[in-house]
Specification:
The chain is about 50% helix and about 20% strand. Strands 1, 3, 4, 8, 9, 10, 12, 14 and 15 form a nine-stranded mixed β-sheet that branches. It has a two-stranded antiparallel sheet with strand order 2-13. A hairpin with a 2-residue loop joins strand 3 and strand 4. The longest helix is centred in the N-terminal third of the chain and has 39 residues. The model has no long low-confidence stretch (mean pLDDT about 85).
Length: about 400
């Protein structure tokens, strides 16, 4: 058995001549455990919100999206896009034209993002699951063009799920010059009818200004006949999305970008990752502060065990072995605190998942979920455990060597 480790284990669990040393050692373990538990819980809550947002976006965002690298649009009959549509991994391919416009309804105006999609869009995404109203999902019937606005956009324009009359959409003409004597002549105007539903993704990016309509309407409005802004894809069941993404990228080269769902919402998820990292850094500082208790405990232990150290020297122990005894003592405290903290953190996360112990509000329905969402990522748990061990070991290394030279 490792001699310094054996002595350190004995010192950690045996009764000291001064009871305060036992108390400080216990406080050290508790401090490390609490900091570790906080890291596990806080990072799991960030993961919970991350997964919650991702679940909302899956209702409207495709699994993969192909967009041109240069310019905003590309020819719909582009040979690269034809090759992508013919890939055996692709189950649904939807062309999309997306542009900004001005919407006006009974005197109320709002800037909107018109998203014109193919008729198979409901097979590409779960859009039917986020519709509210007494109507049905439809984009056009014969020459009638329908628009499905986001819930917040409908509220801003005074639209109900089934509005009466026309929703006018204004888009600047792409060709010619604006005549200041007749500014309205510089716009293309078209109108949409209500299918009796609105959509709600619970994401401001979509609910606030998006309106879904047919791709024919969008192409006519923006003068983009024969063009598309992006090609949206859904894979067949069991297909590896990332591998398919690599295959598409190999086909298109640098002509197109291929984005998965997280890359389509890169800004949103990047902000969440930055917030999570900042929380990790702050809690690690708290952990460092908690490790100062270990230094205090070891200082008192070194003083208390001066007589034992003299005995060990007489028995042949070297100064290096004696120093390692107290290093092991500090490291064991950090390891025990890390194990206890991770265990308590995982237990509290499980209780929150099962019973929703910490709610988001006093009244149900005020929020998308009633309790803080929690998602444990075991890669995070491993990083936390290694962080605690590293901080604990580094925190005791220099103080123990210094105190050993001064006091022993």
């Amino acid at each position: 058995m490792n001699f310094p480790f054996f002595i350190a284990r004995h010192y950690l669990f045996s009764k000291k001549s001064t009871n305060a040393i036992n108390v400080i050692s216990a406080i050290s373990v508790i401090g490390v455990a609490v900091a570790t538990m906080a890291l596990v819980i806080v990072l799991s809550v960030f993961n919970g919100f991350h997964d919650l947002v991702a679940s909302f976006l899956t209702n409207l965002d495709p699994q993969l999206e192909v967009v041109p690298t240069r310019g905003k649009t590309v020819a719909a009959n582009d040979p690269y896009l034809a090759k992508i549509k013919a890939m055996p991994e692709i189950e649904v391919a939807t062309e999309c034209v997306e542009e900004m416009a001005l919407a006006e309804y009974q005197g109320k105006q709002s800037m909107v993002t018109v998203m014109g999609v193919d008729d198979n869009y409901d097979k590409l995404t779960n859009v039917r699951d986020i519709l509210y109203g007494d109507g049905t999902y439809q984009l056009h019937v014969a020459n009638l063009q329908f628009g499905i606005p986001g819930a917040r956009l409908a509220q801003n324009l005074g639209l109900s799920a089934r509005w009466d009359g026309y929703l006018h959409i204004y888009a600047p003409q792409r060709n010619g010059q604006l005549d200041m004597m007749n500014p309205e002549g510089g716009f293309t105007v078209d109108s949409l009818f209500s299918p009796g539903v609105v959509f709600a993704v619970n994401n401001g990016k979509y609910d606030r200004d998006h309106i879904i309509t047919s791709i024919e309407f969008a192409r006519n409005l923006f003068g983009l006949n024969g063009k598309l802004s992006k090609l949206q894809l859904r894979m067949k069941a069991g297909v590896d999305i990332e591998q398919t993404k690599k295959k598409i990228k190999a086909i298109t080269g640098d002509r197109f970008q291929v984005l998965n769902r997280f890359e389509q919402q890169a800004d949103t998820f990047r902000i969440m990752e930055v917030e999570k990292f900042i929380a990790y850094i702050f809690l690690t500082f708290i952990l460092v502060v908690a490790c100062f208790n270990i230094i205090g405990s070891l200082s008192m232990l070194i003083i208390d065990k001066k007589a034992d150290v003299a005995t060990l020297r007489n028995l042949g122990a070297t100064d290096k072995q004696i120093t390692r005894i107290f290093l092991f003592e500090g490291r064991m405290i950090s390891v025990i605190g890390a194990i206890v903290g991770v265990g308590l953190g995982l237990l509290l996360c499980w209780l929150q998942q099962q019973y929703g112990l910490v709610s988001l509000g006093n009244s149900s329905g005020n929020f998308v979920v009633d309790a803080y969402p929690v998602s444990v990522h075991y890669s995070d748990v491993a990083i936390i455990f290694l962080t605690v061990i590293a901080v604990g070991w580094l925190a005791v290394w220099y103080p123990v060597r210094y105190l050993s030279r001064q006091l022993l």
